[in-house]
Amino acid sequence: MESTQDQVLIALRQIMRAVDLHSRQLLHSHKLTGPQALILRVIKRSGELTLGQLARKVSLSPATLSDVINRLEARGLARRVRSTQDKRQVLVSLTPTGLELLAEDVPLLQDRFVERFSCLQDWEQMLLLSSLQRIASMMDASDIDAAPVLSAGPLTAAPLYPADCQIHDQKTRVTK
Fold it and tell me: How many structural domains is the chain composed of?
C-alpha cells in the first residue's frame, strides 16, 4: 500500500500528465497553446480590448500577454489597432482568420474541469481551493504568474469521460 505522500504525488503527476497530453493534442490539432486559445476566446466574446483590459480578463501580466499577442499576430489570428477615439490606446481584435479558427471547436481542458467543478457543493469547492492553494505554497508556486487555463509548456500550442456532472476517481464512476 502506498503512503499518503506517494498517493498525493501520484495524483499531482496524473494532473500534470493530463495537462501535458491535452496541451500536445491542442497544439497538434489547432496549432494553439491553451493560453492562446483562451485569449482568442476572450477577444471574440468581448470584442476589441486594450492589452490592460485583456490582461485582467485572462489573469496574465501585460508583458506576458504582449508576447502571446505577438505570436497570434504573426500567425494572422489577432491584430493590434490604434483606437479611433483615443490614439494613445492600442486595441487587440481578431482577424477573419482568427474568427474562422474559433468557428471550429477548440477544446480547452479547463472547460470540462469547470463544468464538473461547478457541480460540486460549495464546501467541496472551497476544500479543493484551499488544498490546491496549500499545495501551490508548498511547491513555492504561489507567486507564479498564471492564467486560469490548464496548459503545459510555453504560453506561446478526446474527452476521458462524458462532461455531465460526474464524480470520478480511479475506482468509482457515479453519474447523475
Answer: 1
